[in-house]
Design goal:
378 residues; alpha/beta; Urease, subunit C, domain 1; TIM Barrel; 2 domains; 9-stranded mixed sheet; 11 helices; 16 strands; 29% helix; 20% strand
């Protein structure tokens, strides 16, 4: 995809007039929001500022996709043009590619796990082009693996957890990876797509669990334990829906949806992530950018309110990944902003009606995202 066209910046200050702002879990009355350079500034008037009339529109914090895979600058371009101003990458290698994608001035800002830790016999070991140093065979290798990822710039550590006997790292190795990550001040994210893998991830005390089981309902005790341990779920419903469809098993997605609803009801924090990728050899390829809008719709379908779904793609993800400079529309924070037609608190599909987007104060042209008609909604 071509680089999203940067809009002529004009004056250093831009004033967005008459916008209703997503302020936590509600919309404000129409007000003015000022962009000054790369940050949101106090409203000190519009003198000398370029003005944008946002009457009838909603201003959202830039969206955060809590689970993507990066494949090059075109990945960032797609994300930015769909209002995803921050992306949390869950596996990109080699380090040179990842370094080239960091802090590109007018594209989506990223954080990354770098190379994931996998077992020698699991499905991930068979993904074409998987990094040879991703395999961690025994607990004694965990410290070296984590140190290498931290040295390469990893912001957190990704561990691919499989159910016992399915080829992932064993429990002792997972424990050692979690301990090594904590020694380096890094949080852990566990891939866990089955109920058995969820149990292992909970036992190991990982910080975040990504995906949601398709194979069976989680036990009430497991759900209560996850809530009690303060662990976070990134369900990637878009990926689970696509995987179930590829297998011709509609019942599996209904299981995933019920699992997500139960976790949410128990108070487990839910973060919006899609597993966007173009990787050969994976169960389903999820489109970058557009898929986050679908993810929000699936979260609402699973029982979150529109406000909760938007919170999961903005301030909540920022909080749980330590991104203190974004996720809300507050003076002093990054000017990551998305202006949409309509009210997404009334109809979550309004997030697709992208009007203008700013990445750290730099405006980019939105993709032509068609707002689906009610009869087309899944």
């Amino acid at each position: 995809m071509p680089h999203p066209e940067s809009v002529e910046p004009g004056p250093a200050r831009t004033a967005l007039l008459n916008v209703r702002v997503l302020d936590g879990r509600r919309l404000t009355e129409p007000c003015t929001v000022v962009i000054d350079g790369g940050v949101i500034a106090p409203d000190n008037g519009t003198s000398g500022a370029r003005t944008v009339d946002g009457s009838g529109m909603t201003l959202l914090p830039g969206l955060i996709d809590a689970h993507v895979h990066l494949h090059g600058p075109d990945t960032l371009a797609r994300l930015a043009s769909h209002g995803v101003t921050t992306a949390l990458d869950m596996a990109t290698w080699p380090p040179q590619l990842l370094a080239a994608l960091r802090r590109v001035p007018d594209l989506t800002d990223i954080r990354s796990a770098g190379t994931p830790a996998i077992g020698a016999g699991g499905p991930h070991a068979r993904i074409p082009g998987m990094a040879h140093d991703a395999i961690v065979r025994r607990p004694q290798e965990a410290g070296e693996f984590v140190a290498a990822q931290v040295s390469a710039g990893a912001d957190y550590i990704k561990i691919v957890v499989e159910a016992p006997g399915e080829g992932g790292p064993d429990r002792e190795t997972i424990d050692a990876l979690v301990a090594a990550a904590r020694t380096h001040g890094r949080k852990t994210v566990a891939h866990a797509a089955t109920a058995g893998a969820y149990t292992m991830a909970l036992d190991a005390g990982v910080d975040h669990v990504t995906h949601i089981p398709l194979d069976r309902l989680l036990e009430p005790g497991e759900i209560a334990r996850m809530a009690g341990q303060g662990q976070v779920c990134i369900p990637t419903l878009t990926m689970m829906e696509g995987t179930a469809a590829a297998r011709g098993n509609a019942t599996a997605y209904r299981t995933a949806r019920r699992n997500l609803a139960a976790l949410h009801a128990a108070g487990v924090p839910i973060l919006a992530g899609t597993d966007a990728n173009t990787q050969p050899g994976v169960p389903f390829q999820v489109a970058h950018g557009e898929s986050l809008h679908h993810e929000l719709e699936l979260l609402v379908d699973a029982g979150l309110t529109p406000a909760e779904a938007l919170h999961s793609a903005t301030a909540l993800t920022a909080r749980h990944f330590g991104l203190d400079d974004r996720g809300a529309i507050t003076p002093g924070l990054r000017a990551d902003l998305v202006l949409v037609d309509g009210d997404p608190l009334t109809d979550i599909r309004a997030t697709r009606a992208l009007h203008r987007i700013w990445c750290a104060g730099i405006e980019v042209t939105p993709a032509a995202v068609r707002t689906c008609r009610p009869e087309e909604a899944s």
